[in-house]
Amino acid sequence: MERPVLHARRREAGHPNRERREGWLPAVVYGEGASEAIALPRREFEELVATGNVRGLLDLELEGTTAPAMVAEVQRHPVSGLLLHVDLHRVALDRPVRAEVPVVVTGEEELLKRHGIVERLLDEIEVEALPSALPEEIPVDVGGLEPGTTLTAGEIRLPEGVRRITPAEEPVLTITLPQIEEAEAAGGAEAAEGEGAAAGKGGD
């Protein structure tokens, strides 16, 4: 699969607002013990974000030199959500890297037939793999799970060549019932206990 290309230019540190006004996104690229201040075309990076593969392997073209890289962090304005800054890391294709990979839930339609609801506890799982083997997402099929089930990171199957870093016991999601049904179930249990107690008294 062809890697996306992200163009960049070097910039002077200390003028991020000017860069943003001119349509550039301030960024820093790290690698080999050094860092470099760069700027990315805002629209180009927004298009990359829209693909949903912003954390995947890409080619960073910096003023005529191209090298594989990965996005490490994206900073947004806490209120407006506008992109503010990006951190990238140059990577070696023959060395494992660590990344946070999003968990994507599937099978919710089947779960809803049993009135189950997915409660997300962890949105991403940290893994380690060669850059070319890093998955874009980790699918989790909840269609066969029953209400009351809690799925941990260690129970999620990963692609071959991908090693989990997140602790195995870390809960990722749990399947619950709607609050009304939980209340009805609890009420039914209490009623059954009351009937049992009354029957016991009647037999004395």
Written description of the protein model:
By secondary structure, the protein is α+β, with helices and mostly antiparallel strands. The chain has two domains: 5-91, Ribosomal Protein L25, Chain P; 98-197, RNA Polymerase Alpha Subunit, Chain A, domain 2, CATH 2.170.120.20. The protein has helices at residues 16-21, 42-50, 108-112, 179-202, and strands at residues 5-10, 24-31, 34-41, 57-62, 65-76, 83-90, 97-106, 117-120, 124-129, 138-141, 150-152, 163-164, 171-176. The strands form three sheets. Strands 1-3-2-6-5-4 form a six-stranded mixed beta barrel. It has a four-stranded mixed beta sheet with strand order 10-7-9-12, with no helix packed on it. Strands 8-13-11 form a three-stranded antiparallel beta sheet. The chain is elongated. The termini are far apart. The model has no long low-confidence stretch (mean pLDDT 88).
